[in-house]
Amino acid sequence: MIQQAFAANGIHFAQPTVQVGSDEKQAAAAAATANAIARKQAAEVVEG
Fold first, then answer.
1. pLDDT category, 40, cuts 50, 70, 90?
2. pLDDT higher than threshold 80 for residue 20
3. Residue 31 and residue 38: Cα distance in Å, rounded?
4. Residue among 22, 5, 23 at smallest CA distance from 13
5. Which of 11, 22, 34, 42 could form a disulfide with 6 if both were Cys (CB 3.0 to 4.6 A apart)?
6. What is residue 33's predicted lDDT score, i.e. its pLDDT?
């Protein structure tokens, strides 16, 4: 309701956006991070 009132007066709210790309470097970094987290969690289970 409030958003419609603002829009009627030419005031618009920011909308979040998502960008999907195929950057192999980012994918490799994400995989390495996930692997490091999994290894850390596995080590904690063995120690604990």
1. very high
2. no
3. 10
4. 5
5. 11
6. 93
Per-residue pLDDT for 48 more than 70? no
Is residue 3 a contact partner of residue 13, using CB atoms and an 8 Å limit? yes
Rg (CA), the chain: 22
- For residue 25, the tally of other CB atoms under 10 A from its CB is 7
CA–CA gap between residue 39 and residue 2 (Å, rounded):
49
* Distance from C-alpha of 36 to C-alpha of 44, rounded to nearest angstrom: 12
- Rounded Cα distance between 48 and 35, Å, is 20
